[in-house]
Amino acid sequence: MKTDVFADRHIGITEENLSTMLEKVGVNSLEELISKTIPENILLKEPLALPPAMTEHQFATHITQLASHNKIYKSYIGCGWYDTFTPPVIQRNVFENPVWYTSYTPYQAEISQGRLEALINFQTMISDLTAMPLANCSLLDEATAAAEAATMMHNLRSRAQQKSGANTLFVDEEIFPQNLAVIQTRAIPQGITVRVGSYKELEFTPDIFGCIVQYPNNSGNIEDYREFTARAHEAGCKVAVDADVLSLTLLVPPGEWGADIVFGSTQRLGIPMFYGGPSAAYFATRDEFKRSMPGRIIGLSKDKYGHLCYRMALQTREQHIKREKATSNICTAQALLATMAGFYAIYHGAEGLKEIATRIHHMTTWLGNQLTHLGYTQKNISFFDTLRLGLPAHVSPQKLRTIALSKEINLRYFDNGEVGISLNETTTPADCHQLLSVFGIAAEESVHEVYDIPQQDSIPQELCRTSSYLSHEIFQKYHTETEMMRYIKRLERKDISLAHSMISLGSCTMKLNAAAEMLPLSNAAWMNIHPLVPEDQAVGYTELITNLSEQLKIVTGFAGVTLQPNSGAAGEYTGLRIIRSYLESIGQGHRHLILIPASAHGTNPASAIQAGYETLTCACDEHGNVDLEDLRTKAEEHKDQLAALMITYPSTHGIFETDIKEICEIIHKCGAQVYMDGANMNAQVGLTNPGTIGADVCHLNLHKTFAIPHGGGGPGVGPVCVAEHLIPFLPGHVHFGHPQNEVSAAPYGSAGIFPITYAYICMMGAEGLKRATETAILNANYLAASLKDTYGVVYQGKNGFVGHEMILECRKTHEESGISENDIAKRLMDYGYHAPTLSFPVHGTLMIEPTESESLNELDNFIRSMQQIWKEIEEVKQGDASREDNVLINAPHPEYEAVGNQWTHAYSREKAVYPIESVRENKFWINVARIDNTLGDRTLLPTRYGKFES
Fold first, then answer.
1. Is the separation of the CB atoms in 76 and 422 below 8 Å?
2. Does pLDDT of 326 surpass 90?
3. 630: three-class secondary structure by DSSP
4. 0.90 exceeded by the pTM?
């Protein structure tokens, strides 16, 4: 091993391991394995044209230099992003902690109780602040939450409205421009007409099904929407409110004046601006709409012994189950950022949040009064933190801008010449004086030094909040750093993450998130940049985005890329919108069908429906390949209506289909496009790519293939790479003057985590990336060879090998012993492992993806665990263990049961909790028994206040 070669640190398999593994797999070299796994006609002829790999030290120097090109000014732009203080106890113990950022979405609840509790804390906070009974545990950003609200209201139309064709959504003109742009992107293909105007002038007509307003609005004004909401309800319309979450500590919450949906951003609750993202959006609604709500919901349940616990509730709403009938295509959300925002509320409590909000409001009120004395005209009378000002005749916007920039201050400049100022948590009296000085110089008026801000309010009494919030004890107990740190640590000890063991989830690519990739994120020069600053203040970000974009184009073999989508599902949607725009441009907008293999992930059909298409399923053959003749027949039969094929490669069955180039040719001959789902790019990088294969568009999951951590369910990034002819249709942004296909609030989506992927590619280099892919394929085949004689492998390629993942057969086991794939998954927890992907894409199976980062020692330990479980299954099958009382159906065995005075099982405690020696040396103690998966759905309790009836 070369100590300065990053790839040797990232890749778990050493040169010394290769001979053992290759012998087990049945080949003589890695090259032979690849040649027998990937079709020869799609292999790259040349290495990726990337610069030489950097060492960790070289990259640290490089990324620090890039960051230094950014300029951190005081930004009072607002418009959805606000400077804030991230409490160091949260930054250090959550944001920078691999236990929190390397965990997976908490589908396996028994080993996820820590982050599930953190997320239900977030939901409780949102429910309290909005006065709505139900909140989900985050969405991607404020703009996509707005679009989800529009879709949800459309889905909630009455039968009479559906029959009469009520398809008009009213959006008040005073919402943030980027939110309106994303609403329009999402609404148009779904047949929704967006009508923009003043809510005060709206006359309700039968075609209107829903309304969206903002509170406080785009100009900072606090509008009284009570009468409007009542009129909307009388007309049969739903009302969704985009509400500033911090303002709700002072304002009457929308839930108290009749809102049906409340959404917004929690960025200002301790989450850095990150040049636009990531941060967690929130979404709250009425209980009766729970099954139409997008995103994930955490709820209370009980384990088999009656202990209270948490789980993801109402999962049957989700895209991987409902597919084309799903409420949304949401998959990844913003769990890590939601967790941080929830901890922020816990750390400050109700009094702390109100104190922050009150301080901001008092400074804003005082500043407004002072600016009026200087001759500026205040355009909003009642406000929370934002002023909109008309300028005196002798002050031009350009003059004011020049003076402000000379003082390193950013303001918001409206198209009509007015100016906006949004204060924030970090604003001080000294900052207020500096602002006043800027406006005084511009107006040629003198100002006096400010030492103290008087307590002045501008919120109408009838809109001042009187109800309590954050009254649960969780928001009252942890206000010192010692207590907060211990609470965070108490939760993290309940969760399995990559910090403990391999997470072998198929189709999820849980690889190493190296410290050298993560460290730059804590640099203030990346954290504290507003996304709408002038370009010369974000030169470092511009260089980063340019460099990363070029890298991704090289890796995929495509000519263009957008980094705007902030999840894989958002990337899918974006790619389909790009295809739609292209087809419309060549007079083929009538094409409305998306062909999707039966094995596809549920996001594919869900995204297609969101993009306004209809789906057509093509079959797979007994070997797991796309049935070529069925695809050919359906493509030919619908060639005039076919817009695109969505296909994952290698397939979700874990194999490289030999006919992939012919499949692309069949689709192209029909005049349609080929959309390649990049979920499995970890098996392509450096060996082949979508451009070489013949695809037109491909989204990537940077939180899979390119080392961004999963964060317990987000953040993620879903860039879309396209062929030359699709470049003109890539997403724009309203703040750049062209909102075409805009899909996220910020121009570059979750730019704050781009340094992770950039680091990964820079330090791996072309050779390292190729070796990583080869190793991922080797590791999967090593596991397959080791487990095929017991469990069996469902699908293999034509030469008998799998790709980078494999599907383990468990259906026969269930038939013969009564032990299900779920029992195996739960038993693995007793061995210290997160379960593989359960019953996807084949029901009754386990899909395993080891990635390239795991060592041979870890792979062998996983194999020993699986083989020991096989022996336990055989004991049941042979009658040596009871079918009603065995280690599998009772798994997992929680700590409280293992140390309890009562032990009623027919097997020993040691067999239950120390099944193999490695577990004894490194035991992960589970704190709940198997969780009831129906109780929490029958009685949804989505906040910390909930209680089951005894």
1. yes
2. no
3. helix
4. yes
